[in-house]
Design a protein that fits this description.
By secondary structure, the chain is an alpha+beta fold. The chain has helices at residues 52-62, 98-101, 117-130, 164-173, 206-209, 253-257, 277-291, and strands spanning 4-10, 17-20, 23-31, 37-42, 68-74, 77-78, 82-88, 91-96, 110-116, 140-141, 151-156, 179-187, 190-198, 212-214, 219-224, 245-250, 264-270, 299-303, 320-325, 337-351, 354-361. The chain has seven helices and 21 strands.
Amino acid sequence: MAEWAWHAFELREPGERIGQVPITEWDHTDDLNDAGTWSATFAPPDPAAGDRAALIRQILRATDPARAVIVPFRDGLPLYGGIVWLRDRPTIAGSGLLSWFDRQYINTAWNFVAVDQHLIVRVLVDEAQAGPFTNWGIAVDTTDVTDSGVPRDQSWVIADAKNVGEAIRDKASLANGFDFDIRPELDGDNIIRRLRCWYPRRGRPVSITNLTFSHGGNVRNIVSFPEDASRTTNMAKWIGEETSLNVFVTGSAQALDALDRYPVLWHIEKRPDVKVAATLTEHAERYIADHGEPNADQIVLEVDPNDKTHPWGSWELGDDCNVAVPAGVYDWYPDGVAEVRRVVSHRWTVGPGGEHLYVATGKAITP
């Protein structure tokens, strides 16, 4: 197994390192364009330790809810930045760095006209970190955010009480939107928290990565597999008494004429800040583009992180991949599967049973 270590940092500026945390079990999920979740079990210092009282005080400071960030390192590389939101000793849990912005609200009336979508996100992140007090921010660096070339019009008023994290996701989820992440990165010997925005998408096409997850090869186990989605179609519609209610429904007029196909209420989102029907349609189209048909669940695979052909570090979240399952392995797909999909999430678990890497792949795509 690789070498794992967990280090704690102050959440607030300047994000100073607190020290190493003795963790016995760890579980984190890193999701595309989302905060992800994590949980851990930590052990108190060995009774034979020198100044055990001082070490206990350090551990409590390093796991203080809403004041600390835990960063897991695998073979010296940071994998995730998890804010501690809950502590019930000996367990701690929380979400990624984006979750801090889920607890901030836009406190300025903004009227963006033809402003690049990446710049809007940068403005929101910088304003949230400026805050009403000194050292209000969480040391997220935005200097590497560049223009996407896609201008947007957007207005917010303070009365909207718009959540900053939600506002960022809204911009990203529009048609012709973008991918983003707030993550810890190595900068020399220092850990930097950076906002990254990718346009048109994060990750590389399969033609470049040639990444393959194959059953019987680097795939140890098939965790979940989708059911047949051929009985549904993927036309997007928004329906509601007001434009603040956005309802996604699958089905087309031609499909509804067939006896074996029906519309499916799929996904509902409240968009009180969206007043333009065309923008709601963009949300609907992007949602379907990202999630596929409602019955097309993700394929989740347990992958060998030390596979020699495609080891961890040679691919990342957002990359395309080949998913290869031979005939006779999975009952619902007796002929096997050979599809190109996208890595939309990965999950690491570490404990007495060793380390495990689970990869969630999105709907099948045409490369």
